[in-house]
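User: Could you check the structure of this?
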Amino acid sequence: MYVEYGDYDQRWLVPTDRDHAWHFEEMLGDTALTRANRLVKPWRKAADAGLIEGKVLGILNRVFKRHYIGISCGRTELVGYYKMWADTVERETGRSADRALESPFVEWPLYYCVSDG
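Assistant: Sure, the predicted structure tokens are below.
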């Protein structure tokens, strides 16, 4: 770890992980931690956009609980449900429907259950 005393600031300068994350990732390469960070990053972005709040999750449940998502469900049908969710989120919470459709909810986990049709 690099620590230095800053004459101008008159304090110890200790880098944060964010400041030097690129350095360690470059040295270590792809690690379990970097892979985990890649998986968590879109969820953090969704949380920052207010999409992982109780009301938004309740809307997701309300839209999808009426439908069985399986191999007989086509991709177009599934996208329609997500669009319905995003529109309802925008109408009821003021959160952007476009941001909702960019969230990881749209790919997780139902994408793997549907047919290509």
